[in-house]
Amino acid sequence: MSKHISTGCLPGFEAAFVRVADVCRPLDFGDVFGRSGPLHLDLGAGDGGFAAGFAGAHPSFNVLAVERLLGRARKIAKKAWRQGLGNLRVLRLESGYLMRYLIPPSSVSVIHLMHPDPWPKRRHWKHRLVRDEFAAACLRALEPGGEIRLTIDHPGYLKDIVACFDRQPSLQAFRWLPGAGYPKSDFEVGFAGQGKVVFRQGWRKI
Ligand SMILES: C[S@@+](CC[C@H](N)C(=O)[O-])C[C@H]1O[C@@H](n2cnc3c(N)ncnc32)[C@H](O)[C@@H]1O
């Protein structure tokens, strides 16, 4: 049986969960997914509407949805199970820890950041995910040509995130817009009719 994921002995949706055997050792994604393939991370995946839709639209991609809340992680795992998505796995973990310690260097094709929590009050900014250390970890994790794709509705946090990624020496900003096979996230679906402006930006590792 795989070191990271149990598929044979766990009932139903539980099989979509990644079991981290050693929190000090980078994950082996060939082992996690049982195959090789372009690795896509959805960090702070919420209820997994985007991750499931994206995995379904791109069966050759390996999609890892990362979510710290157990209830939401379970919803994602249930989507993977019910929709028969063998290329979607769920990791219940803090994304910053994952990026810093568990992702092998140059292993990720795309990091999807969809509406990261903005923590609007200044005294709470320390809880924000995207800071310089996180940006450096993303750069390390990406393969050459790999991308970060950001979708966000909070202008203040957008400005700070842009500054963090722009400070990284080998990340080049580009205008990114979602094409076909890029479903809306649960938050975006919830915005319908609210007149919210959604910003998008991409960075590529050069
Ligand atoms: C604003 S919601 C957006 C959810 C989803 N990306 C979407 O667009 O519908 C942010 C999600 O990220 C999760 N989250 C926030 N910080 C996180 C972290 N450091 N690690 C993992 N998950 C995190 C929250 O629990 C929440 O589900």
The CATH superfamily name is Vaccinia Virus protein VP39
Radius of gyration: 16 Å
Beta percentage is 15-25%
Please report the first level of CATH classification, the CATH class.
Alpha Beta
Order of helices and strands: HEHEHEHEHEHEHE
Largest sheet: 7 strands, mixed
Count of structural domains: 1
- What is the CATH topology assignment? Rossmann fold
Q: Strands of the largest sheet, in order across it?
A: 3-2-1-4-5-7-6
Question: Which structural class fits the helix and strand makeup?
Answer: alpha/beta
User: What is the approximate shape?
Assistant: globular
Contiguous runs where pLDDT drops below 50 for at least 5 residues: none
| Small molecules (ligands, ions, cofactors) in the structure | S-adenosylmethionine
- Terminal CA distance: 37 Å
User: What is the CATH architecture annotation?
Assistant: 3-Layer(aba) Sandwich
Helix content range: 25-40%
Mean pLDDT: 94
